[in-house]
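ESCALATION

Customer reports they have been waiting on this structure for their group meeting. Please prioritize. Original submission:
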Amino acid sequence: MADITADQAHLAITAATKKAEEIGTKMDIAVVDAGANLKAFLRMDDAWLGSIDIAIKKAKTARFFNMPTGSIGQLSQPGGALYNIEHSNGGLISFPGGIPLKNSSGQIIGAIGVSGSSVENDHAVAEAGVAVVD
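Update from on-call: job pushed to the front of the queue and completed.
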C-alpha cells in the first residue's frame, strides 16, 4: 500500500498554513497516512481548541471513505444512502474540510483535515494542502 511520507505531509501542512494566512484565518490542520493514523498536525497560533479534534476527524473520515467530507455530508442527509454514518467509527465529520491525498499515480496515500473557520474556508485551505502532494 502506498503511504504519505513525512516530507509530503509537512508540505501539505505548510501549503495549507500559507493559504489560511492569505485568507486571514487561524486553522487546525491534520494529515493522516494511508492507515488513517495521524502523520502531521499543526495548530496555528490562536486557532480554536475545539477544532483540533474536528480537523483530525475530518482527515480520518476522508481517508476511511476515500472521498471529501463534504461529499459524505451530502450522502448522509435524511433519506440519503449514508444517513447517520457520522455516528460510526467513533464519530465522523460530514461537512467540508477533509480531502483524500493522492500520489502522482493517483493512489490515495492519506488525507488532510482542516477546521477553524467557515466550511468554505476549511475546504479551501485543505485544497491548498492537496495541491502540493504528488
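Sent to customer with the following note: The chain has one domain: 6-131.
Escalation resolved.
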